[in-house]
Design a protein that fits this description.
alpha/beta, Rossmann fold, 2 domains, six-stranded parallel β-sheet, globular, glycosyltransferase activity, transferase, EC 2.4.1.-, glycosyltransferase
Length: 502
């Protein structure tokens, strides 16, 4: 694999990557680290044991290919009331444990800082939720790159809310307002924006303010999008923030090119459930017609109540379409009993297939039988679906997901909304956020109908898919971005070496 910039052992860049400990942040930061290693950077990923298990097989494969990459595991501290090995925040993490996990990560800051000093990297790439790393890098006299989750569009929209406060100029949560100052005229309601914009005292307001302040002091930011997907917002973001930034996506297909990489990405080595491993879902998909299957996945952070699971199940069954549904987490009791009975019914009719827990999403999305995706609008699934050329049924819930829906439905016009109207906090549900089976069914029917609107949506997403594949090839937009970063960082290292010699 090509090595950018000056060659030679003494000039080889050494980097430390520090990912956050939730799957939606952990997996992409590790993928970006692996991309840097592909192009000649010596990479160390700092991580705790349970989180290392999620991606260690990928690192082992990369190392066996001759890439200079490794994990450096730092033991998670013992926290009163926190079970051993619970170090990751996902849909199955009890809410009362989240604060304890974050307490443990706060304790680890000192050990991470010491690792920086001991390893003497040339630069650090850390997640946005570690704002302290910008000062740690400054103490060592090295650059820090910040990984920013989400789309450029989402962060441009949030900047609009912070700067112009249009949401404070409407009379109710359901009244529309214009997102001021963006390249497109787009409207939202107060009920769709994160609670920190409606409640000035909300804890996330302080967290995000700290994140943005640390970004301003960074060498620059990296995103997992690609220029052809949202280039106008990439440029807008650079203008309004005044910071350097690079698009490096689609990262998943760039680094996971081998079937073994795709099959194991983001998954600890565990025994497959009998009948529900790769052979089961693959054989089922192989039996289906091209673009006939609806892939349904709501990410690693959602845990639906029984009432919403019932609506999803009926919508899928009533649609008459074949579907593959990833059930990432279901509470024991009524919810699990309902889904298990539903699974028996659709398996017997051969109309549906359920995968419990983790799913090999990259392999599923590239299967020719898959024709569309129902998504929570998490950025990982969005980009991976677009990369695969698949249109989307959009169902945002929390975080920046309603902004991502605006990009997909109103700007790019490659998605159909189910009509979710209310932002909610992670894993919080009430009757007001329940999406009815009729609304889910309408979106599915429109996207899978083969009608004129459906065909236009598919045409647009196929064009973006082709652009995504070119972006990571030699001369492509993301390839050139990576080359630019590495060459700049090598230049900074050489300048530092020359100063020391002088």
């Amino acid at each position: 694999m090509e090595s950018f910039g000056v060659d030679g052992e003494s000039e080889m860049l050494k980097a430390i990557f520090l990912p956050f400990i939730s799957p939606s942040h952990l997996v992409p930061v590790v993928d970006i680290a692996r991309i840097f290693a592909m192009y000649g950077v010596d990479v160390t990923i700092l991580i705790t044991p349970a989180n290392a298990a999620v991606f260690q097989s990928s690192i082992d494969r990369d190392s066996s290919r001759g890439r200079s990459i490794r994990t450096h595991v730092i033991k998670f501290p013992q926290i009163d009331g926190l079970p051993e090995g619970m170090e990751n925040i996902n849909s199955s993490t009890p809410r009362d444990m989240t604060s304890k996990i974050m307490e443990g990560m706060s304790i680890l800051e000192g050990k991470f800082r010491q690792a920086f000093r001991d390893m003497k990297p040339d630069f650090i790439v850390s997640d946005m939720f570690y704002p302290w790393t910008v000062d740690a890098a400054a103490e060592l006299g090295i650059p820090r790159l910040i990984y920013v989750g989400g789309t450029y569009f989402a962060h441009c929209a949030m900047h609009s809310l912070e700067q112009f406060e249009p949401h404070n100029k409407v009379g109710s949560d359901d009244e529309s307002f214009l997102l001021t100052g963006l390249p497109h005229e787009l409207e939202m309601t107060r009920s769709q924006i994160p609670i920190r914009f409606r409640d000035p005292n909300h804890r996330m307001g302080y967290v995000m303010k700290t994140v943005k302040e640390s970004e301003k002091k960074c060498y620059g930011s990296v995103f997992k999008s690609f220029h052809e997907f949202e280039g106008v917002y990439e440029e807008h973001y650079k203008r309004v923030t005044g910071t350097k930034s690079w698009n490096l996506g689609p990262i998943s297909s760039w680094v996971n090119q081998d079937p073994s990489d795709k099959a194991g990405r983001g998954h600890a080595k565990e025994e497959e459930q009998e009948g529900k491993g790769r052979e089961g879902w693959l054989a089922w998909l192989d039996s289906k017609k091209e673009e006939s299957v609806l892939y349904v996945c709501f990410g690693s952070m959602n845990n639906f109540p029984t009432s919403q699971l019932v609506e999803i199940a009926h919508a899928l069954e009533d649609s008459g379409r074949d579907f593959l549904w990833v059930v990432s987490n279901v509470d024991e009791g009524e919810a699990k009993g309902f889904v298990e009975e539903f699974e028996k019914r659709v398996r017997s009719s051969n109309k549906g297939y359920l995968i419990w827990g983790w799913a090999p999403q990259l392999l599923i999305l590239e299967h020719p039988a898959v024709g569309a995706v129902v998504t929570h609008c998490g950025m990982n699934t969005v980009i991976e679906s677009v990369d695969a050329g698949l249109p989307l049924v959009t169902w945002p819930m929390f975080s920046e997901q309603f902004f991502n829906e605006k990009l997909l439905v109103d700007v790019l016009k490659i998605g159909v909304a189910v009509g979710a109207k209310k932002w909610r906090d992670w894993n919080e549900f009430d009757d007001e956020v329940l999406v009815k089976r009729e609304d889910i069914g309408k979106a599915i029917a429109l996207l899978m109908s083969g009608g004129e609107e459906s065909l236009e949506i598919r045409k647009r997403v196929k064009a973006l898919s082709a652009a995504a594949k070119k972006a990571t090839q030699v001369g492509g937009s993301s390839y050139n971005s990576l080359k630019e970063i590495i060459e700049e960082l090598k230049s900074l290292k050489l300048q530092k070496l020359n100063r020391n010699v002088a």
